[in-house]
Structures are given as structure tokens and as C-alpha cells.
Design a protein that fits this description.
6 strands; alpha+beta; six-stranded mixed beta sheet; about 30% strand; elongated; 2 domains
Length: about 170
């Protein structure tokens, strides 16, 4: 009597099912990987949202990206240092409006972003490049410190790193 497991038809079916299961498992693993957003991707989205809000002079879109409840939000430009907490939202919006109004007639881009993550803290280093018709590009090196808040990242400090360019940013 022949062993039923050695039946070539049965073996072919088992092989087909095994291949289908392996492919399905790989597809599920790939799908999960594509659905799970990394911290670096989340920070890149924050940077893009900040750039977009600044480029359209929309200070109201910037405030939710800032950490006003935790550490507060600090702006360091040259010798000027300002810190804002949750109670300072109106003053912060006023300052952000002034800054975004100054950028209104310029195109704005972020160049060479580098992101360093250490647990619940991160730094994004990039060049903020402003271009106005008829003027040379202004390039301002920036260190943006961030803190993880749940699944999101919020900016805790904006620091312009170059003195001359930083003063130009305050015009």
C-alpha cells in the first residue's frame, strides 16, 4: 500500500499552499512596514509642515507644531532669546506673524536636513534658504530641537546658527 503523503498530486498541492502562505506572509510584513511611520518620517513631516506654514505666512498653523505645554518653545536668533509657554500663545502668534510676514514675498525651502534622534528628543539640522526676486539667496543654518509628545514630535527650540544670516532673518 502506497503512503498517501508520497502522492505527487498531494505534494504539489502542499507546495502551492506553502508558496501562497509565504507570499501572503511577506506581503503582510511589507504592508505593516509601509504602514508604520518611523520617527524620522514623522519629524520630516513636521519640518515640511513648518516650511509650508512659514511659506504661506500662516502663523496659526505653526503653533500646534510647537511644544508650549512641556518645555515651552524657545527662539534663539543671534543674541535674542525668547521663550514661550502655553500662557504666551497670543504673543507667540504675533511674533510668528511678524516673521512669516517678512518671508511672504520670498520662496522658502529647507536644504540638507539631518535628523538625530535620542529617545524622546531629537535635533533637525538644515539650511533655511530664502529667495527673493532680484536678491541673492539667504541661507540660514538652523538647529531645531524637538520633543516626542505621544506619537507626534513638537519643536522646543528654533536656533539660527549664523550671526550675519540670523540678523537678516530678524529684519
Amino acid at each position: 500500500m502506497a503512503c498517501p503523503l508520497l502522492n505527487p498530486m498531494l505534494m504539489r498541492r502542499i507546495t502551492i499552499y506553502a508558496v501562497v502562505l509565504a507570499l501572503a506572509g511577506g506581503a503582510v510584513a511589507l504592508g505593516i512596514d509601509l504602514l508604520v511611520e518611523t520617527d524620522e518620517e514623522r519629524i520630516e513631516k513636521v519640518l515640511d509642515e513648518i516650511r509650508s506654514a512659514a511659506a504661506t505666512s500662516d502663523a496659526d498653523r505653526l503653533v500646534p507644531l510647537l511644544d508650549l505645554d512641556g518645555d515651552g518653545f524657545q527662539i534663539d536668533v543671534g543674541a535674542d532669546h525668547d521663550r514661550f509657554a502655553a500662557d504666551d500663545v497670543e504673543l507667540l502668534q504675533e511674533r510668528l506673524s511678524d516673521a512669516t510676514d517678512w518671508m511672504r514675498d520670498a520662496s522658502l525651502r529647507l536644504e540638507s536636513p539631518t535628523i538625530e534622534i535620542d529617545g524622546g528628543r531629537a535635533h533637525a539640522y538644515f539650511r533655511l534658504v530664502l529667495r527673493r526676486d532680484g536678491d541673492p539667496d539667504q541661507s540660514i543654518p538652523v538647529d531645531l530641537a524637538l520633543r516626542r509628545v505621544g506619537d507626534d514630535w513638537r519643536a522646543t527650540r528654533f536656533r539660527a546658527l549664523a550671526g550675519a544670516s540670523a540678523h537678516a532673518a530678524r529684519r
